[in-house]
Amino acid sequence: MEDIAQRRSARIRTQSKTVVIADATSDDVIRKRKRISKEVTIDDDDFVSPKAKKKKSEKSQDDVDETSNKVKKSKRPKPEPVYVIPDVEKRETQFRGRLGYACLNTVLRNKKPASESVFCSRTCRIDSIKKNGMDWVKELGRKNVQDLITMIQWNEDNKIRFLPEAGALAEKYGHRLTSHPGQFTQLGSPKPAVVESSIRELEYHCQMLELMGVGKDGVTILHGGGVYDDKPAAIERIKTTIRDVLPKNVRDRLVLENDELCYNAEDLLPICEELDVPLVFDYHHDALNPSSIPPATIIEARQRDLCPEPRPGAITLMERRAHADRCERLPDEVELEDVAIDVDLMIEAKDKEQAVLHLYRIYGLEEVKVESLRPPNENQTKETKGRKSNKKAKGSKAKANDEDSGGLSEV
């Protein structure tokens, strides 16, 4: 112990000499300073226990982290980008109905930082529920509802009053709200378990709309589904399920929509007329899977119309299924005297609310806020982002599984 104290004292004296020598300028003094610095190898840390050294190192790292955090916090936020909005070709129309969009608002969804992004499509897997618990799931639902209120207010500020899924605020502003269950909802499936799960899915959508206080014009839109190698038999199963199995409150909200692959408007109209179920007419799907009935005649039975367009340059059926970013014109049928006054047009386009604002500008339907506009994408792809055809499926069993997808059998 005494030896250690002497060594430490020597180190202190040496440091003192080094400091004094460092103030000198002669060559001899400089050489002495170099010699002393080579000879001195003892440091204060040599007298500190390993445990104390570790604490000192951790404290030093904490100081670095704190300094780093201060630097991050002091960063200035990125300025809002400046958008160049191109002019549009003006058109005239008699249309005085409502235009709407589906699913999400691109302006709110793309807000930066990501923590400020607004959307109401948070979801989860069963494994996540087991891991995080139901309180976590409920919080996801609360966030969806909170963001939905923000979306409705944005739509009202921008005069868009036809969108899916909302509540009292939408009723206050006179917005129309609808829902669209997924492609796994198959009322005509030959598998009883799939039909039962499909009914549960429709009951959920109906309950959701009822809990939000949405009126009867808040419908649930559904495609015909698969044909299962026998379309007449599938149609009979669809009719039986709607007529004999669906609860009345679910049936009262049900609306059928023509699709681009299996059921065109001509296939569905007899079902709608027989069971008193409204039809949603999809212009895009009718162009891909046309019926012999003119669109103007079909619209007379409409509850709501869809107005998507295929992407520019699309040739094959799979390419033409992909929606364009925006629509450049309204359907000719809305110019008819009995239609133009009150029809609702859902604009199914990739640019969502921007597609609606684009038509507002073209036809002068509403005044548009410049700050709400975003420029169109100059390079549209021809890809579909949804379901794909399964060319590798082998045999009838694989085909049946692909059509049913088996999704709702586990819901």
Can you characterise this structure?
The structure is a single chain. Strands 1-6-5-4-3-2 form a 6-stranded parallel β-sheet. The protein is built from 16 helices and 6 strands. Mean pLDDT is 74; it is low at 4-48, 301-308 and 386-411. With 411 residues, the chain is mainly α. Strand 5 (302-306), helix 14 and strand 6 form a beta-alpha-beta unit. The chain has 2 domains: 2-68; 98-107 and 161-376 and 404-410, Divalent-metal-dependent TIM barrel enzymes (TIM Barrel, Alpha-Beta Barrel). The protein has helices at 2-22, 27-39, 50-73, 106-109, 126-132, 134-157, 168-173, 192-211, 231-245, 248-253, 265-275, 283-288, 295-299, 317-321, 353-363, 395-404, and strands at residues 98-100, 220-223, 254-257, 279-282, 302-306, 344-346. Helix content is 46%, strand content 6%. The radius of gyration is 34 Å and the shape is globular.
